[in-house]
Amino acid sequence: MTQVEAVVAHRERATLRVGDVFLKVDGDEERLAREVEAMAAAPVPTAERLWHRPPVLALAALPGTSLGRLGSPSTASAQAWVAAGSVVRRLHEALVPTWPGASLEDTVAELDAECAWLLAERVIPTELVTRNREVAQAALRPWTPVFVHGDLQVAHVFVDGETVTGVLDWSEAGAGDAMYDLATLTLGHPEHLDHVVSGYGDGVDLDVIRGWWSLRSLTAVRWLVEHGFDPAAPGCEIDVLKAQLRHPT
């Protein structure tokens, strides 16, 4: 009998694996439709779409393994990380999607609201919040929109040896800041930032990437807690915030 594995499940959406098929269930049918459109438009490897019957999208499993996991050292080679950087560059040079991503104003408002919650609830030390809010400021500048994946976690990039076989989970794709994708890919894996940049090429601002590391971690904590995840797990978001304190100003 083929087993059913819950890959990710929370109140907004869930992904199940049944043999070599992934079933993604999304309560927001418009978002799922945009994901299908983004996958079709992206000039990079994606999972084969088997069928789409809202609110479910069926995808074939990708060959290889994920580049890594947040909270665990990556076993992928340096060359695989370089290849991932090249794939991200190809995406960012594609035609920008017609639907907008988060605006700078919305991003600032979300960050300020989440920092206020963290301080009020005393979830993490005040110094951790205030220092990372300062670091995050580097990301809060106007950017030229490009085609971004929008949630380019290391677990969403699959590789086989030195080849990227596919990129998963395009639900947040749209027009956005290129540095945000690079920051998301390297979040918790700063030792591979140079490899990704080597594959990506010019135009990288390391201070902005570090700013996005802080911003993404600060804004993720409440959501993770409320959805049953642990941002304090070793190597995860709170450890990323702590590491930012050790980085020279």
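Next protein, fold it too.
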Amino acid sequence: MSKLPNIGTSIFTVMSKMAVEYNAINLSQGFPNFPVDERLTDIVAQLAKENVHQYLPMAGYTPLLSKIAALVEKSYGRIIQPESEILVTAGATEGIFASIQALVQMNDEVIILDPSYDCYEAPVLLSNAIPVRVALNDDYTPNWTRIEKACSSKTKMIIINNPHNPTGKILTQTDFEALEKLLLKFPNIVLLSDEVYEYITFEKKHLSAHTRTNLLNRCIMVSSFGKTFHVTGWKVGYLIAPEYLMTEIKKVHQFLVFSVNSISQVAISNYLDFVSVDEIGGFYQKKRDYFRELLQTSRFELMPSEGTYFQVASYAAISNENDVDFCKRLIIEHGVAAIPISTFYADRKDLHLIRFCFAKDNATLEEAAQKLCAI
């Protein structure tokens, strides 16, 4: 008997598999196809010959924990304790899974804002808890009245994703003020803030939960070196949480993976000595602007992209078919893979929108745009 009877193969796996089968350009899954910084690969090459291949401490490589604390202080002005408030995880997904498994009990409710990334619901269900899916407005702003109505004495956690995947939307000062008011009314709710794209923002500055003093004692922050440094396959993320929450999360983490692979942790720790995260937003903004420019003559309507490396587009002027079928046909007939936005909703709400990933080299974007503009 399945523990997850209603969860099938991820849409990302489906579309990437189809992209391979039909030799299509894969703008579906969110990973870069350009080279990693040579400074980082040089570090890895050197470390391969050194004694860094055995288990590291369960919570993370000690120098890396200190450098994460320094990065957070530099980025957000927040002082955190490396030994008790940081956990290096096997990607952000493992961090999210461990957090939910540790803190959510049977019959608790967890608020998930749709469209939502697909790794949130499964650990809630595996905790024998209840995911409560609440749709964002059609412009992807949070409807705080609707969110508050969904909260009750059973609500244990609210998950936010900022910058937001799949839409690229960024939360505002007003959003955080509304969230803080809501949490005042429900003092038992814990906030899980997924901010893996925190350094990939454009005209609007990313406003992090790290900067909200009223939230810090009940918030788990989720970050990703994989996203920040274009090494998604390394699967290295980290959590930051107050000690009373982190103690519980570490209990799950130690039996889930115990510790994250050693060479990646040491390499990232060394890399942080000279890399600047301040350059990342500008790098991806050029990618976003170039991709949007390439699609100017297409029949797609491009939605705002405030952060992440995703571009949402409407195909309403092209077809009336549902977004899953359109994406399949896009692969088969036109040779480009994208992700249908309806799959991020519990009710499969279909607004005729799809998501492209523009974290690709220029040649790939140009080839994809040529195909898309011919539709």
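About the second fold: Residues 74 and 164 are 23 Å apart (CA to CA).
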